[in-house]
Design brief:
Layout lengths: L9 H37 L3 H8 L1 H30 L14 H6 L7 H12 L1
Helix pairs in contact: 1-2, 1-3
Bound molecules: zinc ion (ZN).
Length: 128
């Protein structure tokens, strides 16, 4: 799937490493949650431990797992997009105003697509 990328240097290499790390972390989390959700659906068949049966009978927990899986899937998509933008030399640009996204923000969220200003604007709009 990965197409040949031009060599990355300096900052870009750093961003690339950050993104790869974030991708691995999210993939691991997804696996963990997927296995957990699967365990619950197989719980009756396998005669599992009381601990597991208890956990599985807790429906809200199960729903939370599934919701987290969806969110992690979204993040994974954002990371893939960010890697693509890095390959295109478009990484770190706000998708709304086109200004560079603050470096400190990219460190915490290497897959961010909006600068702080635009993100705050969106959050205000969502709250109404
Ligand atoms: Zn912006």
């Amino acid at each position: 799937m990965t197409k040949k990328m031009r060599p990355l240097e300096g900052k870009e290499k750093e961003y690339f490493d950050n993104l790869m790390q974030a991708r691995e972390a999210v993939t691991q989390q997804m696996q963990y949650h997927a296995e957990d959700a699967l365990d619950c659906s197989n719980a009756d068949k396998r005669g599992v431990t009381t601990h597991m049966a208890d956990a599985c009978s807790d429906n809200s927990r199960h729903e939370m797992e599934l919701r987290m899986l969806t969110e992690e899937g979204d993040v994974l998509q954002l990371i893939e997009d960010a890697l693509q933008r890095l390959a295109d030399g478009e990484y770190g640009k706000c998708q709304e105003c086109g200004n560079p996204i603050q470096e400190g923000r990219l460190k915490i969220r290497p897959y961010a697509i909006f600068c702080v200003k635009c993100k705050e604007k969106h959050e205000r709009e969502m709250r109404g």
